[in-house]
Write a structure and sequence with these properties.
Chain B: InterPro entries: CBS_dom, CBS_dom_sf, cNMP-bd_dom, cNMP-bd_dom_sf, Diverse_CBS-Domain, DUF294_put_nucleoTrafse_sb-bd, GlnD_Uridyltrans_N, RmlC-like_jellyroll. The structure holds two protein chains of two kinds. By secondary structure, chain A is α/β, with parallel strands linked by helices. In chain A, 42% of the residues lie in helices and 16% in strands. The chains are: A alpha/beta, B alpha+beta.
Chain lengths: 200, 582
């Protein structure tokens, strides 16, 4: 099982207006996080909303000197390879990435992605605990799995936190006998807990 | 920045790495999770990786079992040298490890000597090397301005030599900085003065004889660089400046004093041998106590300090007993012995008196009480438990009989007395009495009592649990949990083997035929480390409770290692004396 944990920072959440300003990709082979192969880049947007500076901790100077998405799109594709994309609320990251690729004239569709919030719901079903919405935030999951929340709002740090959570989640599932992606998929469809927010 | 990097650069030994070296290491890093019960490495297999435990617990199974927890590393040698791993590593609970590529690890070790020495030190468990390094470094790297103790004495170039020499005499300095319009232009030293006198020109001006090419040092420059400057230029004085401003003058003696931190205490020792005034003695002892604090803060360790300080305490005893003997008309025909840390020559910060007397013909009780009182007065407090010559004075035959009784009836009270008196060391008087008693002790000692003593010595374990050091946040009593277990167990072996030495480190050395070379080294290193730690703590606090936040990161790593060594040693003691079958 080859995964790529992705975390994308954007100028906002509006898919039509907003743009990607930072991409972090952290490959995983099975349960192994390949820290040495981590990839991160800032991306220069066409227009930059100053109001989000504080939130991201990214200054206009950094972004002015950053490459455009098209300039790094090849690298990003290489890093993702044909790995299954993993993240928290990963569908949004996926949509933004597809849009940015599209703007560069590259038609890319990521067929498979896995949301750690969804994985958490699967674990909830198995262990008979139904997590509420609040219990599925990145902060709550990190707390639950004892993953320290450090340097939040940097794409790389968030990706690492997500990878650590995913690592522990997967081990739990393996202990339960779910040790392949297809096993997880069939489990999810059987339970019918997939919803529009947890795109597969 | 990626979180593992942030974590690693704060912890020993990764904190020794440059940003670039750390990046190289992380460039080949992976994070892997192991399920409870999973074997990480099998014994005899080679491993490509060095493992760092991020969370969880790992059991290393070899002849002995060792548990590793958060923050510990394993398989370093194996991964770096490509040799088979000498144990089986199993995850005892779900465990997350950072995996470093062994080849990259090796490269970083080759480029960074501090990083390499850390691993060599732990592989060989020679902690002192690591610590000594930092001490010397601290001494030699401190800024030279710290050696300047007063404003410089100056004169002008047209100052007459005779006047200049008068100023030097009055201010008792060996040199004057020659200043023209506020700027230092030269230095006039003792040597220059001799030149003026030799050419009978003491009415001449300083400018004719001064050394004009000033050798200066910037105030922030490290001491050792200033030293090198003086050696290279062949001068005995160095002018310290801060930009254009004159800060002071240091002499080669000031620099050497950094290398000779004991000078002051040695002076006191000489004076102590001549004084016959108890008040003066009391003042000297107070100075010694202050000086010990200074020395500790300069990084002087237990090994050197205890040797020196015990000589001073011994001298104080000798002097007090000598002087009072004269007053009371008492002859030298008794042996005054000290017990406790003084008996073992392990005293640094004065502890209570622990002493006794072995006599042939009765020594007056008033005299002994007076010695105890006087020692108390000069600064060594009376023993609360009453182990003092005024209570413990017996004839040699009586002492022999008592030891026999203690050995033959190993009830708790007698075991306690053995623990106290088996560390006795002759201080003053007729040493033959002491030697005779020790000979007798070795004759009458018996295995049953020694086994009970071994049992006592292993009953308190170091606070090391499966999660590392227990209760480190509440403070750890290093004396109770680290030093005493070593002292007490080593005493048992020493008596068993008929070793007359009382000092714990010397006893350990003499016990190599029992302990083996490796254990001797490990114990000595751990013992000295714990004593150093306690010393540093006691320089500012009077208890033995060491708290986590007063420990440097490296100290914490070594402390855990030292406790492991002690715990392992206690296992050896138990097996050797069959303690568990008692």
């Amino acid at each position: 099982m080859r995964f790529a944990v992705v975390d994308v920072e954007t100028t906002g959440l509006d898919l039509r207006k907003d743009e990607v300003i930072s991409v972090a990709i952290l490959p995983m082979d099975g349960l192994k996080i390949l820290v040495g192969s981590a990839y991160h880049t800032f991306v220069r947007p066409k227009s930059f909303r100053v109001s989000s500076i504080k939130y991201h901790g990214i200054t206009p100077e950094i972004l002015e000197n950053a490459p455009s998405f098209c300039e790094v799109s090849e690298e990003i594709m290489e890093k993702i390879d044909d790995r299954v994309l993993v993240g928290h609320g990963v569908s949004i990251d996926v949509e933004f990435l597809q849009k940015e690729f599209g703007k560069c004239g590259k038609k890319v569709r990521f067929e498979k992605s896995l949301d750690i919030a969804l994985v958490e719901r699967v674990i909830g079903e198995i262990f008979g605990e139904r997590p509420s919405r609040e219990e599925l935030t990145l902060e709550s999951l990190a707390r639950k799995y004892n993953v320290p929340l450090v340097y939040r709002h940097s794409a790389m740090a968030d990706a690492y936190i997500e990878a650590q959570i995913f690592q522990i989640q997967m081990m739990r599932l393996m202990k339960y006998g779910i040790n392949s992606l297809s096993a997880l998929e069939s489990f999810i469809s059987r339970l019918g807990i997939s919803d529009s927010h947890f795109i597969f | 920045m990626i979180p593992p990097k942030e974590l690693l650069r704060k912890i020993v030994p990764f904190s020794y790495l440059t940003g670039d070296e750390l990046d190289r290491l992380i460039g080949g890093m992976e994070v892997e999770i192991f399920e409870e019960g999973e074997t990480i490495i099998k014994k005899g297999k080679k491993t490509k990786y060095v493992y760092f435990i991020y969370s969880g617990r790992v059991l290393l199974k070899n002849d002995v079992e060792e548990r590793l927890t958060k923050g510990e590393l394993f398989a370093v040698t194996s991964a770096v040298e490509g040799t088979p791993f000498n144990a089986t590593a199993v995850a005892e609970e779900d465990t997350i490890c950072y995996l470093f590529d062994g080849r990259v690890f090796r490269e970083v070790m080759e480029s960074n000597s501090k990083f390499r020495i850390f691993f060599e030190t732990f592989a060989e468990r020679r902690f002192r090397e690591l610590r000594f390094d930092t001490q010397v470094e601290e001494l030699l790297l401190k800024p030279v301005i710290e050696l300047v103790h007063r404003r410089p004495i100056t004169c002008t170039p047209d100052c007459v030599v005779k006047e200049a020499s008068r100023t030097m005499l009055e201010k008792s300095v060996g040199s004057l900085v020659v200043v023209n319009a506020g700027r230092p232009v030269g230095i006039f030293t003792d040597t220059d003065l001799k030149k003026a006198v030799a050419s009978e020109r003491i009415d001449g001006e300083v400018r004719e004889f001064m050394t004009p090419n000033l050798i200066t040092s910037e105030s922030r420059e490290p001491v050792f660089e200033a030293y090198i400057k003086m050696i290279e230029a062949g001068v005995n004085h160095l002018v310290i400046v801060n930009g254009d401003a004159l800060e002071g003058v240091i002499s080669i003696k000031d620099v050497l004093s950094v290398f000779e931190p004991f000078a002051k205490v040695i002076r006191i020792y000489r004076r102590l041998r001549r004084t016959d005034d108890f008040t003066e003695m009391r003042d000297m002892m107070a100075t010694v106590r202050d000086e010990v604090r200074v020395l500790v803060s300069k990084g002087v360790g237990f090994h050197d300090l205890s040797r020196m300080i015990n000589a001073i305490y011994d001298q104080t005893y000798v002097r007090v007993i000598e002087l009072l003997s004269k007053e009371y008309g008492v002859h030298r025909d008794f042996s005054w012995v000290n017990m406790g840390s003084s008996g073992r020559k392990e005293q640094v910060i004065a502890t209570d008196q622990d002493n006794a007397v072995i006599f042939e013909t009765e020594v007056p009780q008033e005299f002994l009480a007076e010695v105890n009182e006087t020692m108390d007065y000069v600064g060594i407090p009376k023993c609360v438990a009453g182990y003092m010559a005024s209570n413990w004075h017996h004839s040699i035959d009586e002492w022999k009989r008592m030891f026999e009784e203690w050995f033959n009836e190993p009830v708790p009270k007698n075991l306690r007395l053995l623990t106290v008196f088996l560390d006795m060391r002759h201080i003053y008087g007729d040493k033959r009495l002491y030697d005779e008693l020790i000979d007798h002790i070795f004759e009458v000692k018996n295995m049953q009592a020694l086994r009970f003593l071994a049992y006592d010595a292993t009953s308190l374990e170091p606070p090391i649990g499966i999660f590392g050091i227990k209760d480190i946040d509440k403070g750890i009593d290093v004396k109770k949990h680290g030093i005493y277990p070593i002292v007490n167990a080593v005493r048992v072996f020493a008596v068993d083997e008929g070793i007359r030495e009382t000092n714990t480190l010397s006893r350990i050395s003499e016990l190599e035929h029992v302990f083996g070379e490796r254990r001797v080294e490990e114990l000595k290193e751990s013992f000295e480390f714990l004593q150093d730690l306690r010393l540093k703590h006691q320089a500012h606090k009077s208890d033995n409770l060491i708290n986590q936040n007063e420990l440097e990161k490296l100290d914490l790593v070594i402390l855990r290692e030292a406790f492991k060594i002690i715990k392992n040693f206690q296992g050896f003691v138990r097996r050797y004396y069959g303690v568990d079958r008692l």
